[in-house]
């Protein structure tokens, strides 16, 4: 390169650097200029009807609150115009009178007419809320995983590690469901359930008296232990049950159906509910259950709950479960559904769970919620490097509940999960370092916040 060309390239490089600097400075200024105001309001869930909201006013807008345009928007338009709200300042707070006429998501939007660029076109602040009919308003959303494994069967982590991980991922209830072992869940209920936390511990085990895996959930004793102690009686019961099955059913299928359905009967007799685990579990070379077994068991409707999400079985399981569930509904057959991880290591926990809309965290109330179709199956993954801050959250169940749940995972569960995780940290410290008055008091303090959070968001 000659001297003339060298200086020409150098001057172009300087111009480019100057341009990048101006763009960076302009971008920085833009971020500061368009910083959103925070109109603070902690109530998020309301009954249908009229309410007066008392909203904290940001300092920057206290002098011109009367000049703002404030609208109430319903997420589904229903051919209705947005409602203009009249700002009323009382005792230093903004009072807004709202009327929720339909169930669903609402947003209060704040516009500044003096902003020449945005004006009344783009809101600079939002308050998001949800209005419910009385039946759903009276219920609490609870997250739980009832299919997890520990080192007491084929899991990689101890029961304590598994249980503490449930806190870390923000669950309200858990049930370790080891293969052929009910005692793991019972031990966790005794060892950790005695501490004053928001977590509830339920009984569970995964049972293997047939090719199809049946889960006993919430039973007062172990199914495997019960059958082993009464094996002759169980075998006789299965043999008698086979005689009641359709004569044109293949013999191998008769045996499989009888083994499954007698287990389900016993589970109900000992106070639990039966769950058909991962009907489309694919091992990499074949499915665990035959098509004939899935078809017969689902059509006969003798088990209680369909495990819709089993995160450990990955996408093929969910896809086929969705297809099968759709087919069943078309045929007039409907099952309550749940979501689980089937985690065999703690790193897999948190990606599949159930949201149950329940009166309380007591097992009988959660059981009632599931059996009466007030539960959703949830699968959480992320979008990868492209959108690392986002999650792909797939929720299955009743449309009314799904819409509500998507609001909750943005507006309620983040704060809820933080508090539950903090409980888990404090509980872990107690287990590792021992009980002291100070540690127990701190755990109770955080636990009380966690337990009362739901009441604090109800309007």
Question: Could you write a compact summary of the structure shown?
Answer:
The protein is of the alpha/beta class. The chain has helices at residues 3-33, 134-137, 159-168, 183-191, 223-229, 231-242, 251-269, 291-300, 314-330, 363-371, 399-411, 413-433, 437-457; strands at residues 45-47, 49-56, 69-74, 83-85, 88-90, 93-100, 104-111, 125-132, 140-148, 173-176, 200-201, 204-207, 214-217, 273-276, 305-310, 337-340, 352-358, 375-382, 391-396. The protein contains 13 helices and 19 strands.
Global mean pLDDT: 90
**CA-to-CA gap between the ends?**
74 Å
The number of helical runs is 13
Q: State Rg.
A: 28 Å
Per the principal axes of the C-alpha atoms, what is the gross shape?
globular
Main β sheet profile:
6 strands, mixed
* Helical content band: 25-40%
Strand order of the largest sheet: 11-10-9-17-18-19
Question: What's the number of extended β-strand segments?
Answer: 19
Classify the beta-strand content into a percent band.
15-25%
Sequence stretches where pLDDT stays below 50 over 5 or more residues: 6-10, 12-35
The assigned structural class equals alpha/beta
Task: Describe the protein's architecture and organization.
The protein is of the alpha/beta class and 459 residues long. It is built from 13 helices and 19 strands. The chain has helices spanning 3-33, 134-137, 159-168, 183-191, 223-229, 231-242, 251-269, 291-300, 314-330, 363-371, 399-411, 413-433, 437-457, and strands at residues 45-47, 49-56, 69-74, 83-85, 88-90, 93-100, 104-111, 125-132, 140-148, 173-176, 200-201, 204-207, 214-217, 273-276, 305-310, 337-340, 352-358, 375-382, 391-396. The protein has a six-stranded mixed β-sheet, sandwiched between helices. A five-stranded mixed β-sheet has the order 1-8-7-3-4. A hairpin with an 8-residue loop joins strand 3 and strand 4. It is globular, with a radius of gyration of 28 Å. The chain starts with a helix and ends with a helix. Residues 6-10 and 12-35 have low confidence and may be disordered.
């Amino acid at each position: 390169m000659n001297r003339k060309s060298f200086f020409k390239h150098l001057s172009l490089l300087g111009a480019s650097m100057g341009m990048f600097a101006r763009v960076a400075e302009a971008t920085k200024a833009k971020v500061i200029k368009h910083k959103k105001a925070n109109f603070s309001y902690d109530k998020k869930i309301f009954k249908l009807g009229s309410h007066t909201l008392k909203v904290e006013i940001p300092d920057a807008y206290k002098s011109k609150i009367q000049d703002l345009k404030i609208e109430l928007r319903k997420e589904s338009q229903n051919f209705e115009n947005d409602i203009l709200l009249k700002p009323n300042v009382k005792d230093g707070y903004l009072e807004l009178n709202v009327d929720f006429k339909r169930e669903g998501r609402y947003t209060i939007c704040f516009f500044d007419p003096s902003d020449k660029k945005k004006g009344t076109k783009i809101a600079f602040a939002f308050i998001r809320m949800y209005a419910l009919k009385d039946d759903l308003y009276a219920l609490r959303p609870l997250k739980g995983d009832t299919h997890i494994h520990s080192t007491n069967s084929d899991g990689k982590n101890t029961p304590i590690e598994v249980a503490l991980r449930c806190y870390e991922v923000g669950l309200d209830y858990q049930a370790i469901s080891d293969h052929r072992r009910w005692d793991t869940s019972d031990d966790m209920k005794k060892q950790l359930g005695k501490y004053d936390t928001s977590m509830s511990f339920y009984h569970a085990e995964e049972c293997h008296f047939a090719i199809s895996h049946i889960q006993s959930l919430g039973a007062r004793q172990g199914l495997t232990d019960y059958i082993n102690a009464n094996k002759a009686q169980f075998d006789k019961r299965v043999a008698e049950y086979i005689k009641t099955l359709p004569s044109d059913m293949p013999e191998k299928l008769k045996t499989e159906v009888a083994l499954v359905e007698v287990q389900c009967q016993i589970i109900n007799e000992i106070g639990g509910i039966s769950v058909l685990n991962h009907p489309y579990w694919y091992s990499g070379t074949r499915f665990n259950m035959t098509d004939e077994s899935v078809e017969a068991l689902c059509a006969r409707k003798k088990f209680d709950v369909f495990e819709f999400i089993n995160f450990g079985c990955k996408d093929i399981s969910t896809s086929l479960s969705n297809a099968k569930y759709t087919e069943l509904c078309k045929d007039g057959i409907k099952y309550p559904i749940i979501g689980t991880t089937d985690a065999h290591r703690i790193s897999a926990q948190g990606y599949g769970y159930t949201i149950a809309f329940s009166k309380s965290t007591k097992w009988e109330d959660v059981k009632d919620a599931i059996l009466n179709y007030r539960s959703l199956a949830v699968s959480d993954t992320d979008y990868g490097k492209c959108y690392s801050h986002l999650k792909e959250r797939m929720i299955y169940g009743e449309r009314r509940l799904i819409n509500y749940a998507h609001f909750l995972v943005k507006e309620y569960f983040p704060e809820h999960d933080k508090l539950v995780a903090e409980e888990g940290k404090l509980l872990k410290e107690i287990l590792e370092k021992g009980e002291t008055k100070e540690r127990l008091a701190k755990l109770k303090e955080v636990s009380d916040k966690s337990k009362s959070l739901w009441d604090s968001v109800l309007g």
